[in-house]
């Protein structure tokens, strides 16, 4: 409203000034005035009119710029209002824990810590994805699945990956990559989660593990240049950290 009022005031001043100039010009008597010839008066009048027209043109140009800036600011505000992402909280989102396992029966240690520090089992359900077909490890996972309602999924493809001779020594890495792809597809496409925390079976987590990811999740959601948040700590070993 203030901007519309300002535009109205500028227009009124502009019209009033033109009317006054017109009245002053047409009210002058013809002939000589104080020794000034008619030609001189006409030249002076022409100069006054040209200056006034130039001034009027500047006012109109400023008015146009003002209106353009006003429209541009309104457009920017509309864009910001429609494109600014809605603030999101980790507390409002289900974020599962995806535990990647293979042939380590010590996966029980990682599961114990995940269960111990989990502040909300409904908001952070645990999913264990196992490859390798290692029966002792599968038995351990199954025991936890029955006792703590952990979801147990098995990678269906345990076949060797055909590789040329130089790459055969990397067979294990190719299998891990294949397993990760399959497990993430299950989380995002089959179970319809929008985010996930990935843990491997030989990792220990700290007491603030869940709190850390809850605090950083809004940052990950709001910044499109971020793809993930990492909690990896090369120095996170017994004797080097307090917990």
UniProtKB/TrEMBL annotation:
Pfam families: GNT-I. It is a single-pass type II membrane protein. InterPro entries: Glyco_trans_13, Glycosyltransferase_13, Nucleotide-diphossugar_trans. Its EC number is 2.4.1.101. It is found in: Golgi apparatus membrane. Its cofactor is Mn(2+). GO terms for biological process: protein N-linked glycosylation. One of its GO terms (cellular component) is Golgi membrane. Belongs to the glycosyltransferase 13 family. This is Alpha-1,3-mannosyl-glycoprotein 2-beta-N-acetylglucosaminyltransferase. GO terms for molecular function: alpha-1,3-mannosylglycoprotein 2-beta-N-acetylglucosaminyltransferase activity; manganese ion binding. The keyword Membrane applies. Pathway: Protein modification; protein glycosylation. Keywords: Glycosyltransferase, Golgi apparatus, Manganese, Membrane, Metal-binding, Signal-anchor, Transferase, Transmembrane, Transmembrane helix. The keyword Membrane applies. It is an enzyme of class 2 (transferase).
């Amino acid at each position: 409203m203030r901007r519309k009022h300002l535009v109205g005031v500028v227009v009124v001043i502009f019209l009033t000034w033109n009317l006054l100039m017109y009245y002053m010009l047409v009210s002058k008597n013809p002939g000589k005035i104080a020794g000034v010839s008619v030609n001189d008066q006409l030249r002076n009048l022409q100069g006054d009119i040209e200056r006034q027209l130039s001034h009027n043109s500047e006012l109109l140009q400023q008015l146009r710029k003002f209106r353009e800036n006003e429209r541009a600011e309104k457009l920017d505000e509309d864009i910001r209002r429609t494109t600014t992402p809605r603030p999101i909280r980790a507390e409002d989102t289900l974020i599962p824990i995806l535990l990647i396992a293979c042939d380590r029966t010590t996966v029980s240690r990682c599961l114990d810590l995940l269960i111990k520090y989990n502040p909300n089992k409904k908001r952070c359900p645990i999913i264990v994805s196992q490859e390798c077909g290692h029966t002792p490890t599968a038995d351990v996972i199954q025991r936890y699945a029955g006792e703590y309602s952990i979801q147990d999924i098995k990678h269906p493809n345990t076949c060797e990956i055909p590789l040329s001779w130089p790459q055969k020594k990397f067979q294990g890495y190719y299998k891990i990559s294949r397993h990760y792809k399959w497990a993430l597809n299950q989380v995002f496409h089959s179970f319809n989660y929008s985010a996930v925390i990935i843990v491997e079976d030989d990792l220990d987590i700290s007491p603030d593990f869940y709190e850390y990811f809850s605090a950083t999740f809004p940052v990950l959601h709001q910044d499109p240049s971020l793809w993930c948040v990492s909690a990896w700590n090369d120095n996170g070993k017994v004797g080097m950290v307090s917990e």
